[in-house]
Design a protein that fits this description.
Its EC number is 1.4.3.-. With 802 residues, the chain is an alpha+beta fold. Among the domains are: 110 residues, Nuclear Transport Factor 2, Chain: A (Roll); 109 residues, Nuclear Transport Factor 2, Chain: A (Roll), CATH 3.10.450. 18% of the residues lie in helices and 34% in strands. It is built from 12 helices and 36 strands. Helix 1 packs antiparallel against helix 2. It is globular. It starts with a helix and ends in a 41-residue tail after the last strand. The N terminus is likely disordered. Bound molecules: copper (II) ion.
């Protein structure tokens, strides 16, 4: 449109002066004429000039009006694109998905009020309860038992009861308990399920994550107590001013070295956006086991690589000059993501020419041959259920389970650090997605409600997005040369469901992608800030220097997906396929031998056989198969293709390993059990030495897995050796892992051949539109209708006062 305007304007402008100049120049001037005549001519000339001016203004006005009219006509030529789903897609929804739907704000409140009413439990109503109080930490959906859900979904069975899981931290009694509260909407009852789930009466109090209430007390200790004692030292070394604190904290985990410990190494960083890459060289170890925060104390200090046992000893050595002091100097914020030049351009954006070809209603998505239910758990994050292709269930559950990182460092803040994000809450930190950046502008955005850590339901607007997207490379194509000339192709238009969770420094982008070929992909990308530590002698063994005095610490990334495949029912087998070279004699010249690849197939019988460790020789093809065969007599199956460049898993000799034993295996197949719902737990991080969920126990009983309901636990990841280009942010390109869940002899041919997006032509029909919509794309063009841009993602986020 801009081009049209420019051309019209210059065209009109150039015409006007030419026209008036021509008028003035005729007749030509003759200098020997009399003065009276000259005067008369002057008069005539003045009148002509005025007329010309008027004419000029008039022409300009007409030109402007003409331009506006032309622009309007031009823009009206394109009809507005439809913004809603195409009618037939939306009509297909059912209520069945609701059994997997997250709890509603009303349900959270009912459950909370019910628990508050149980006077014997003595639960605090305070928004940020003290450690010593009894407190509801979490309310979340209890997933229906699979058998009940299948009876309901497939055989008109009763709708499974809707129930909530409630986690209560009993500060008063020194333990943790879990309850199931239901049926919703009531009348409600509660049941203590701690024994049933974890085989113990109650969980140790130190197994709980640090709550906002505890953080408030920790921050109070640091800034109100420790820093007050260190005013001089902090002022000289870091320019610290208690009136406007310029140091922020970042904590290492786990909190100690043995069960029962609650000792956290807190490192200090410049209080910039992107503080994670601004370490200042000061760390303290705080012991905070006691429920009474006045008992908490600093057990160690680290200053510029040197350790001290007490605040006093640090002060004395500092005063005596017995150490290498860090001299404060102002540093600009190289971590800032504010663009260094004012953004000017706009990249390409996709929009829906004929309305959305998918539909989202409640927690159900329908897209072409696909349909599924979705939810977002506060702890484990995004999940989908009852995933069907052309009516047949392929996957009962596909869910994010855990994200873990193990760090290396010479300084304590990062030295023993092993982050297990489920304990912090993967879904909890799924903040609002930014239109046009985090997801395509025209995606469908879905609000999420959560109840975790504060005694209220929180709304996270637009925390999930769903969109159809042309991934920019054809799903398939062939140009036929030689004998039969033809072209056949299909755009790779796929449906994405996405959430992004910003847990501290890292942002994980979680995608489940549904392709027209019957494939599902579960994928994670990491972006955000690396964790870093202050560079001291010996640091470079554990990473690279990435800024002045800043070491980017080496670490692993592991993410686990649960893939509960049901291939034509729940009775499945696990098979592997690979190749080997076989020496054969050539049938037509038997004296000549050749090595040729042959197929090697196997069916694994037990859970331990099917627990495939990362560094072992894993067959390339891993299948969950049905006993039914396709048209060609082969077992109909889905293949798991893991894309991962994971680092080494923590050696099993380490006491913390059992909390993350799921990461031993690239793929592990277990027999489905409702009691084996997750590979990790809320308590894995803080009870890392004595975990209540140790995944390796799921396969210890070595059950048979032939013709059983099978679950694949897939671990993907990457080794991260931070480098200069991780500053300021780690980019998504190349940083992540995924699993593809692909049909393999499941169909008789590629189902995408039925796609209505196919393009085909041959010589003579290149521009024929019937089988080539691209040749007539101009007939389908429409002008996009953009939803108004809004963002409320900062509302209600945690912000601590120092
Ligand atoms: Cu990383």
């Amino acid at each position: 449109m801009g081009m049209v305007w420019v051309w019209l304007y210059s065209h009109a402008f150039n015409q006007t002066p030419q026209c008036s100049l021509a008028h003035i120049s005729a007749p030509p001037t003759k200098p020997h004429r009399a003065p009276a005549l000259r005067f008369l001519r002057g008069m005539v000339s003045q009148v002509t000039n005025s007329l010309l001016k008027c004419l000029l203004i008039l022409i300009c006005l007409v030109s402007v009006i003409l331009n506006i009219v032309l622009i309007c006509l031009n823009s009206n030529r394109l009809p507005k694109c439809h913004t809603h789903s195409q009618g037939t897609v939306a009509a297909d929804h059912t209520d069945h998905s609701l059994i997997f739907a997250d709890l509603t704000p009303k349900e959270y409140q009912m459950v909370r009020d019910y628990m508050w009413d149980q006077k014997d439990l003595r639960i605090s109503h305070s928004a940020t309860a003290k450690v010593s109080e009894n407190y509801i930490f979490l309310i979340d959906l209890v997933l229906p038992k699979k058998a009940e859900a299948l009876r309901y979904l497939d055989n008109q069975g009763l709708k499974p009861e809707r129930q909530a899981s409630v986690v209560v931290f009993y500060g008063e009694f020194n333990y943790l308990k879990e309850y199931v509260v239901g049926p919703l909407p009531g009348p409600l009852k509660h049941r203590d399920v701690t024994m049933e789930k974890y085989k113990v009466e109650s969980l140790p109090f130190t197994a709980r994550p640090v709550t906002i209430g505890e953080y408030v007390q920790l921050i109070d200790l640091v800034y109100g107590n420790v820093f007050m004692q260190l005013k001089t030292e902090l002022k000289e070394s870091f320019g610290y001013d208690p009136k406007s604190p310029n140091l922020s904290i970042f904590e290492g985990m786990p909190r100690g070295v043995k069960a029962g410990d609650r000792k956290t190494w807190i490192s200090f960083f410049r209080d910039f956006s992107g503080m994670y890459i601004h370490p200042v060289g000061f760390e303290i170890l705080v012991r905070h086991e006691s429920k009474n925060s006045s008992d908490w104390m600093v057990e160690k200090l680290l200053y510029n690589g040197q350790y001290f046992d007490t605040i006093e000893s640090f002060k004395q050595t500092y005063a005596a000059g017995g150490m290498q002091k860090i001299v404060y100097k102002e540093v600009s914020n190289f971590a800032s993501l504010k663009p260094r030049s004012v953004p000017t351009g706009l990249g390409p954006h996709q929009y829906y020419l004929q309305g959305k070809r998918f539909s989202v209603k409640s927690n159900q998505v329908i897209y072409k041959d696909w349909r599924f239910a979705f939810g977002l758990s506060s702890l484990t994050g995004m999940r989908v259920f009852d995933v069907r292709f052309r009516g047949d269930r392929i996957i009962y559950e596909l869910s994010v389970q855990e994200a873990m990182s193990v760090y290396g460092s010479i300084t304590p803040g990062m030295m023993l650090t092993k982050f297990l994000d489920t304990s912090i809450g993967i879904g909890r930190f799924a903040h609002e997605l930014v239109r046009g950046v985090d997801c395509p502008y025209s995606a469908t955005y879905i609000d999420v409600y959560r109840y975790i850590d504060i005694n209220a339901t929180q709304l996270y607007s637009n925390a999930i997005c769903v969109f159809e997207h042309d991934v920019g490379r054809p799903l398939r194509r062939h140009f036929s040369d030689f004998f039969q000339n033809s072209y056949g192709g299909l755009t790779n238009s796929a449906l994405y469901i996405r959430s992004i969770t910003a847990i501290g420094n890292y942002d994980y982008i979680w995608d489940f992608i549904f392709y027209q070929s019957g494939t599902v992909e579960a994928r994670v990308h990491a972006t955000g800030y690396i964790s870093s530590s202050y560079k001291v002698p010996g640091s470079l063994k554990y990473g690279h220097q990435v800024a002045e005095n800043v070491l980017g610490n080496i670490h692993t990334h592991f993410a686990n997906f649960k893939v509960d495949l049901d291939i034509l029912g729940v009775r499945n087998v696990f098979q592997t396929k690979d190749m080997e070279y076989e020496e054969v004699s050539l049938p037509w010249m038997t004296e000549r031998k050749a090595k040729i690849p042959k197929l090697v197939e196997n069916q694994l019988k037990t859970e331990q056989e099917a627990a495939l460790r990362h560094n072992s020789k894993i067959p390339r093809y891993l299948h969950v198969a049905s006993n039914q065969t396709n048209r060609w007599g082969h077992q109909r199956s889905y293949k798991l293709q893991v894309m991962s460049l994971a680092g080494d898993h923590l050696p099993e000799s380490e006491p913390e390993e059992r909390s993350m034993s799921w990461a031993r295996y690239k793929v592990a197949i277990t027999k489905h059990k409702d009691s084996e719902q997750t590979c990790s737990s809320l308590y894995s991080q803080n009870n890392i030495w004595d975990p209540v969920v140790d995944f390796s126990n799921y396969i210890k009983d070595n059950e048979h897995i032939e013709n059983e309901d099978l679950v694949a636990w897939v671990t993907a990841g990457f080794l991260h050796i931070p480098h200069a280009e991780d500053i300021p942010n780690t980019v998504t390109v190349g940083n992540g892992g995924a699993v593809l869940i692909r049909p393999h002899n499941y169909f008789d041919e590629d189902p995408s051949i039925d796609s209505v997006d196919g393009v085909y032509f041959n010589p003579g029909s290149e521009t024929d539109c019937e089988y080539n919509k691209m040749a007539c794309l101009d007939k389908h063009m429409c002008s996009p209708t953009l939803e108004p841009y809004t963002y409320r993602g900062f509302e209600g986020v945690i912000k601590f006062d120092k």
